[in-house]
Specification:
The chain is α/β, with parallel strands linked by helices. The protein contains 19 helices and 36 strands. The strands form 9 sheets. It has an 8-stranded parallel barrel with strand order 1-2-3-13-16-17-18-19. A 7-stranded mixed sheet has the order 21-20-22-23-30-29-28.
Length: 725
């Protein structure tokens, strides 16, 4: 009997033909790819598989860019804050940056494009009071105010591709040249990129799929003087800056961008910052430009009868998969790195492509595949967290990246990947492209809305952050939950109202972040719309500091809905009497183990009608409140765990007034979940843990059964005939 095959992409490398054949058989791979640092030889390209070849439009041609170094990408950087202790102050621009990555831009007039700022007052230093010393990359400031801090916002050229630099350091590529990036906005580069692409397509007829890694502008990744990451923002548009881009923006918009628009006091427009109108217009401007230039490359690929796919990473800035211009590009597919359920949904929900593909972890690099380490541990965790999301909205393909020769040395890892590739195909065979049962529609409300679908609370791609994990857990929980999820912005609500198909709105985050909302909650019209919706029967869930801004005696601007507010120190003289905990509530029924992560201090009840579900240390961490015909739930924090995911699920059903529908395709063990596919006549019971689990299972007709599942197990069953609830 022939082993099932398909839906799997295998990395390979030169001189590894027989081993590649064996791995193709074991994992059922029908496509082969190269990776950054590897190449496929003719024998591998001749194998019976689709050939993916990574293509880097803006790096890997030092012979070209060394003749046009003024066409390297640019970035605005901020010097260290430096305190004045005399009337003259000297600031070293690159003191805390990696000299091998950056060069200060002296081609364009610093007096036109730089800014020197008194950071104690926020005022700009007059141009006549500072001068540039090119030798040593210094700025000298005259007539300073003693004990004030100053900074310089300056333009720099990126002379070493940040991702190649990262891989260079990680894999000890000591002999490899530093690849110099170049900017598609510049005239020589623009012509070179398209001429080179045309020639490459002619020279590589055996390639079936061009895997763009990615296109033009790198997400913000800057290294410090020690060669370590100084700051990384997976959404950062800082490296898309150039004088040419800014001048075109000025001509179209009628106003000039400044250095401060990009350095943003040193926050660099992190996605946690409430975006300014200027920054949103710049993101849109760059995205429109990138979509036009990207389409040219994609059209060339299609003319060569090949597929064009992009990797959602590296130079992905401007190619916003949930943005307004993505459909116009015409890509065949998107592939992205799968770190968990949230990042899988970020890939699998992308519209306007023929298929999506996930690159699973671990990456076959020596930082994981070394003697004494067990890569199976990471592979298991990666698969179980991603599988929850696959069962809700599957990617079409899966694969890996890196050096196959490293993974080949770990037979237990090879065995485990064989198991999960078979399971991945089995999931597709059972789902048959049908939509899973969904209990309700949930909207996540923040400043970014749909543009950052499944991307809220992310610092760097699926990496942990202490300040954000209490919120990221919301997305991770939702990624595998039996609910439809959409992301809406405050602007959407103000312009269009609230879609009546939405059952529950979630607002979460720390005060003054883009995710909580900040000053937008002073907009009376926003408050009116949300209050009317809740009091008319809508569900509202707030996590952390929802609707928070200090205004008119309230901190939570929808405190009336939540029934709770936060003490900020201004009303300590006002007693808080309501502390009695409610027993036997629907939300906490059967729940004994949950946590609130970094939590939130000093939240208190406004009246005795609030159901206080967790009260400790003199503060509320979990509560529910009836507001007119609607309901609101407050949670102090929600890092991901199976128990917290269940807590959120019960909160959603309570807020929506759908308690009676919870036990529809439901497992009472929080480590297990049920996913039903009425269209294919099948349902799955899954164990999301690394231990054996038993659970009662409720089907769509209210019938119950008991199931025991092995560690990480999945059980498929036919749906009984009869009318589903």
């Amino acid at each position: 009997m022939t082993k099932p095959a398909g839906r799997v992409t295998l990395p390979s490398e030169e001189g590894f033909v027989e081993e590649t054949k064996a791995m193709m058989e074991r994992w059922g791979a029908d496509a082969i790819r190269d990776s950054d640092g590897t190449a496929l030889d003719a024998e591998i390209k001749a194998l019976d598989a689709k050939i993916y070849t990574a293509y880097f439009p803006t790096r890997g041609h030092n012979e070209f860019i060394e003749e046009h170094m003024e066409e390297c990408p640019q970035i605005y950087l901020l010097s260290d804050f430096t305190m004045a202790r005399a009337e003259e102050l000297v600031i070293d621009l690159l003191q805390s940056y990696y000299n091998e990555q950056l060069d200060v831009d002296y081609i364009h007039d610093p007096k036109t494009y730089w800014q020197v700022t008194d950071r104690t007052t926020g005022e700009l230093v007059p141009e006549q009071d500072w001068k540039v010393q090119r030798e040593g990359n210094k700025v000298v400031i005259q007539h300073t105010t003693l004990w004030h801090e100053y900074s310089v916002s300056f333009l720099a050229y990126i002379k070493w591709d940040p991702v190649q630099m990262y891989n260079h350091i990680t894999n000890d590529w000591g002999d490899k040249p530093h690849e110099i990036p170049f900017d598609v906005k510049q005239p020589h580069t623009n012509a070179f990129i398209y001429d080179t692409m045309k020639q490459w397509l002619q020279d590589n007829p055996e390639v079936d799929v061009v895997r763009f890694t990615t296109f033009f502008y790198q997400f913000s990744l800057v290294f410090n003087q020690y060669g370590k990451e100084k700051f990384v923002d997976w959404f950062g548009y800082g490296a898309s800056v150039s004088v040419a881009m800014m001048e075109d923006f000025r001509k179209e918009k009628g106003y000039a961008l400044t250095a401060e628009d990009f350095v943003d006091q040193g926050y660099y427009n992190s996605s946690f910052r409430v975006p300014t109108k200027t920054y949103l217009e710049y993101v849109d401007f760059v995205s429109r430009f990138v979509s036009v230039e990207t389409k040219k490359l994609v059209d060339l690929v299609h003319e060569s009868k090949k597929e064009a796919i992009m990797f959602l990473g590296d130079q992905w800035i401007g190619v916003e998969p949930y943005g307004p211009y993505f459909a116009s590009i015409g890509l065949d597919a998107v592939v992205g790195s799968v770190g968990d359920g949230t990042t899988l949904r970020m890939i699998s929900d992308i519209p306007h492509v023929k298929y999506t593909e996930g690159r699973f972890l671990p990456y076959f690099f020596p930082d994981v595949f070394f003697e004494g380490n067990d890569p199976v541990v990471e592979a298991k965790e990666n698969w179980l967290t991603a599988r929850r999301a696959i069962l809700r909205k599957p990617i079409d393909r899966m694969g890996y990246g890196g050096y196959l020769s490293l993974a080949y040395k770990f037979p237990e890892f090879v065995d485990y990947v064989e198991k999960i590739t078979d399971e991945f195909r089995d999931i597709h065979d059972h789902i048959q492209q049908t939509k899973p049962y969904t209990g309700m529609k949930v909207a996540v409300l923040n400043c970014w809305g749909a543009l950052r679908t499944w991307q809220a609370f992310t610092v760097a791609h699926s990496l942990y952050s202490k300040q954000a994990y209490s919120y990221y857990g919301i997305l991770e929980s939702l990624s595998g939950m039996s609910v439809d999820v959409e992301f809406i912005s405050f602007g959407d609500v103000l312009e269009n109202g609230i879609d009546p198909s939405i059952d529950v709105i979630i607002n979460a985050g720390d005060v003054n972040t883009a995710f909580s909302g900040g000053e937008v909650w002073k907009n009376a019209r926003l408050i009116e719309l949300l209050r009317e919706w809740v009091y008319s029967g809508g569900g509202l869930i707030g996590v952390g500091e929802p609707t928070a801004v200090s205004h008119q005696g309230r901190y939570f601007q929808l405190a009336d809905c939540f029934g709770v507010d936060k003490e900020t120190g201004f009303s300590l003289s006002t007693d808080k009497y309501f502390t009695g905990q409610t027993d036997g509530h629907f939300i906490t029924e059967g729940m004994t183990k949950y946590n609130f992560g970094e939590s939130m201090k000093n939240v208190y009840a406004l009246h005795g009608g609030v159901d206080i579900l967790e009260y400790s240390g003199g503060e509320i961490h979990l509560s529910a409140n009836q507001a007119g015909e609607g309901r609101a739930v407050y949670i102090a924090g929600l890092p991901y765990s199976p128990e917290n995911s269940r807590l959120l699920m019960r909160s959603l059903y309570y807020a929506a007034g759908k308690e009676a529908e919870l036990h529809t395709w439901y497992a009472d063990n929080p480590y297990c979940e049920v996913h039903a596919y009425p269209g294919s006549g099948m349902y799955a019971v899954v164990n999301n843990s690394h231990e054996v689990q038993s659970t009662a299972v409720y089907d769509g007709q209210g019938n119950t059964s008991s199931v025991e599942l092995e560690a990480g197990g999945i059980l498929w069953q036919p749906i009984r005939e009869g009318k589903l609830r």
